[in-house]
Each structure stands twice: as C-alpha cells, then as structure tokens.
Amino acid sequence: MTTPLARRECTIPLVEVAVTEFDLACLPETGAVFDRLLALRPAQVVVDLSACRHIDAAAIGFLLDVHRRLTRADGVLVVREPNPRIRRILQSARLDQVLPVVVDDAAAGSPEQPGPVAPPVGRAVVPGGGGGSRRPAPAGQGRVRRSAEWA
Q1: What are phi and psi of 61, to 5 degrees?
Q2: Coil, strand or helix: which one is 30?
Q3: Where in this protein does the record put region Disordered (predicted)?
Q4: N or C: which end of the chain has fewer CB within 10 A?
C-alpha cells in the first residue's frame, strides 16, 4: 500500500522577479533562475514585466509551466505591470484567464479598481460578411473572415 505524498509547506511567502528580456534566446538562463527560485517553495511568485519590451510564445509557455509547477505546490504566480503591447499579447494567448495579471491603473489612466485584469466575458460584436451587417460572436473566437476572404 502506498501512502499519499505529503504536501510540502511553503517556506517563504513572496518572491519578486524583474524580467527585462523574455524570449526563446534567454529562456535557458531564465529557466535556471526559476528552478532555483521554485526550490525555495514560495507561496507567491510575482514576475515584474514593467521593464520588459518583448515577449514571445516560448516565454508564454514558460510562464504556464511555472504556473503549473507553483499550483502543484499550492503556490501562486502573478504577472505584474506588463506594458500595453505585452498585455495585449497575454490577453490574446488567454494567459490573463489562467493567472492574475496586475496593472497599475493610475498609470494606465483608470484609477478605479486596482488589481488583476478581469478576463473578457460575454459576447462581442464583430463585422460580419456582406451588407455591412453586424452579428454577435462568442468572445475570444479570433478573427472572423468575410465571405470574400474565403476565395
């Protein structure tokens, strides 16, 4: 009979990491830093992207991997202060629906509701095909092609 694995308690409450470059070229070095960081079993890891100007698919996959590893250890990964371009990339990848993305709303021009960016909910109106009609489409369904684009 096997015994269930005991959960290891978090040893430190919070670790903050500032990332300035976040793409495939720097992932080996970044991965080594996060391996050492996760060995400390933090309760929360905050990745500060305020100085980061570029993020690619490999970095998004890396964030998802770190999130998975932290979740298994009862920890939380938070992304903080991505610039508007990176925030759009994270939203396109739906990363903001998986983990908290925190922005400084005073800098973004909206002093209300500081904290995590809420994921989009509901339906969106997108241009439809022919006649200039508009039809609702499920949010996050991507680009809708007009009938002329199919040919």
Answers
A1: -60, -40
A2: helix
A3: 106-151
A4: N
Q: Kindly report, residue by residue over 8-46, the tens digit of the pLDDT.
A: 666 789 999 999 999 999 999 999 999 999 999 999 999
pTM: 0.64
Distance from C-alpha of 32 to C-alpha of 46, rounded to nearest angstrom:
17
Instruction: Report strand pairing: 115-116 vs 101-103.
Output: antiparallel
* 118: three-class secondary structure by DSSP: coil
Report which secondary-structure segment, H or E, holds 45.
strand 42-48
Residues 6+ apart with CB under 8 A from 25: none
Q: Where are the domains of the chain?
A: 12-105, 122-151
- CA 40-41-46 angle, 5° bins: 95
pLDDT tens for residues 81-123?
999 999 999 999 999 999 999 998 655 544 333 344 333 333 3
> How many whole angstroms separate alpha carbon 78 and alpha carbon 66?
10
Q: State in words which class domain 12-105 has.
A: alpha beta
